[in-house]
């Protein structure tokens, strides 16, 4: 065989199997492609990790940080605020300190001023005598969920120099003191000449507070309008809004979704249901709440009514008709502490199906005596009716005024603490009781991030008594000027008779002079046949 033939013979098989060669190449290409697709995302992930670790890629949550913040938040070691030593901390601020590990980096600056341009703008007004241990967690929780401005009508501990100087240093906070000038100004309010609040006038304790809250709300409306607010809400400092049902846990988002033709929205209230008698900080120690009648199926509510009340006068210990938010608009007025109204129309009002206001009532054993000490009524069944609107408040006042500490503690367990695990589990399964953790997590996160300690550390030094009083006078005189735009029956009309004043303001407003809505108990078993509720 010639060399030519031998060469042809050796290589012929290779030429004679083109399909086998193609199949082998295809498998090699597929293997390489799979290897590339596997290694590429791993390589990118490793690169991203390295860059992030070295600071090459900024955290998206820092892009809204105010200038000069260096992407830090109070509570981190590099924060000068968190390392400052607080020498003049009030006694009620000891629990506001931070832990060693920051865990709430969502806001890079405790002043929360980097989101003030967002809409809608929401303000909260309150009348309080609480200390910083209650006001700061309450305020900054609401800042986190979207409130931007706070009108604080303060007295008692809240008006003391060491507390007031800290509150006044917080951006978006207006502190209004109960001075002689403020009382004289409110004495000229048109409210005194109208009928909707008249049944609460000149009565002690809760009735007096209810009138005071309404007068403060009237002033807050003017302040809110001057500040360019879109919504106003009246809350007590033992209440937290729970914006469930929104696309995110945001009060701003919740109100943004409200149709434009709606004037007011109602937050049904849930009531704290404590499981211990030694709670010190309700906002971070209470997670169980009794749901409002409006959020429970009617059959379940009345079917479980006996187990839910445990011998108390009503389903809730205190009120059950919620709180409301109102759009800032012309002729807006308060309608008691729980509602808003309008002098010239019947407002279009809706009720939230999921969102609520969490009411931490009698959550501490000490609440029994603190409520007692704020009221000078006699502990008799007849006299307490003059002082308290709700039956449970009346009973609690009598017990706190007449019983020994051991007797009070026994009564507290029987009527307030949920000791029976079987009943508790049954009501949780039925939906009467529910667990809500979001406020607890947010407030604990704020504390651990050093927000509260930073606020206290950055406040100016305490004012002298003289300077403090001058500040109060100045603050209230400026408020007085602003509030004169309120339609009043007396201001600027001293020379006119009451008859002339009434005639000038009677227009069509009388048609809308609905009586103030007091704190109301939820429906009882006697109301089982009713389908319409206040």
UniProtKB/TrEMBL annotation:
Highest taxon of the lineage: Eukaryota
Keyword Cell inner membrane attached: no
Compositionally biased region (Basic residues): 1-12
Region (Disordered): 1-23
Transmembrane segments: 33-53
Keywords: Membrane, Transmembrane, Transmembrane helix
Entry-linked InterPro entries: KOBITO1-like
Protein's recorded name: Glycosyltransferase-like KOBITO 1
Organism whose genome encodes this protein: Prunus mume (Japanese apricot)
UniProt lineage: Eukaryota, Viridiplantae, Streptophyta, Embryophyta, Tracheophyta
Primary gene name: LOC103330737
């Amino acid at each position: 065989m010639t060399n030519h033939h031998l060469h042809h013979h050796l290589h012929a098989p290779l030429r004679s199997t083109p399909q086998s060669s193609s199949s082998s190449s295809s498998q090699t290409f597929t293997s390489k492609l799979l290897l590339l697709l596997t290694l590429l995302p791993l390589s990118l992930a490793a690169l991203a990790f390295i860059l992030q670790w070295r600071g090459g890629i900024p955290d998206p949550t820092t892009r809204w940080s105010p200038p000069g913040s260096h992407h830090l938040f109070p509570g981190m070691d590099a924060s000068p605020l968190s390392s400052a030593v607080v020498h003049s901390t009030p006694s009620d601020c000891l629990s506001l300190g931070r832990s060693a590990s920051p865990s709430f980096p969502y806001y890079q600056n405790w002043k929360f001023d980097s989101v003030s341009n967002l809409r809608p703008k929401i303000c909260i007004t309150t009348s309080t005598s609480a200390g910083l241990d209650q006001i700061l967690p309450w305020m900054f929780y609401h800042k986190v969920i979207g409130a931007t401005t706070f009108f604080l009508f303060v007295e008692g501990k809240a008006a003391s120099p060491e507390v007031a100087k800290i509150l006044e240093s917080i951006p978006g906070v207006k502190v209004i003191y109960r001075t002689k000038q403020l009382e004289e100004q409110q004495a000229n309010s048109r409210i005194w000449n109208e009928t909707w609040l008249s049944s609460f006038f000149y009565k002690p304790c809760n009735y007096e507070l209810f009138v005071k809250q309404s007068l403060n709300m009237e002033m807050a409306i003017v302040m809110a309008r001057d500040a360019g607010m879109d919504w106003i809400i009246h809350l007590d400092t033992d209440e937290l809004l729970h914006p469930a049902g929104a696309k995110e846990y945001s009060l701003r988002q919740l109100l943004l979704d409200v149709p434009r033709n709606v004037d007011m929205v109602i937050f049904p209230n849930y009531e704290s249901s404590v499981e211990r008698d030694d709670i010190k900080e309700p906002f971070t120690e209470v997670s169980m709440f009794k749901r409002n009648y409006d959020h429970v199926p009617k059959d379940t509510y009345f079917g479980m009514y006996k187990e839910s009340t445990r011998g108390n006068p009503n389903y809730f210990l205190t009120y059950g008709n919620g709180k409301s938010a109102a759009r800032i608009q012309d002729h807006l007025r308060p309608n008691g502490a729980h509602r808003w109204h309008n002098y010239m129309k019947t407002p279009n009002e809706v009720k939230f199906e999921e969102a609520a206001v969490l009411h931490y009532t009698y959550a501490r054993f000490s609440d029994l005596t603190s409520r007692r000490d704020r009221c000078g009524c006699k502990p008799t069944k007849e006299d307490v009716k003059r002082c308290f609107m709700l039956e449970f408040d009346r009973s609690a006042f009598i017990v706190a005024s007449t019983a020994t500490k051991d007797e009070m503690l026994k009564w507290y367990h029987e009527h307030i603490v949920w000791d029976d695990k079987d009943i508790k589990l049954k009501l949780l399964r039925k939906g009467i009781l529910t667990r809500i953790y979001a406020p607890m997590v947010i407030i604990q996160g704020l504390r651990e991030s050093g927000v509260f300690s930073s606020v206290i550390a950055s406040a100016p030094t305490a004012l002298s008594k003289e300077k403090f009083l001058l500040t109060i006078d100045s603050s209230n005189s400026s408020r007085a000027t602003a509030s004169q735009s309120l339609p009043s029956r007396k201001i600027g009309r001293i020379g006119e008779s009451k008859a002339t004043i009434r005639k000038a303001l009677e227009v069509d407003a009388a048609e809308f002079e609905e009586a103030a809505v007091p704190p109301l108990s939820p429906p009882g078993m006697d109301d089982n046949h009713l389908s319409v509720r206040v």
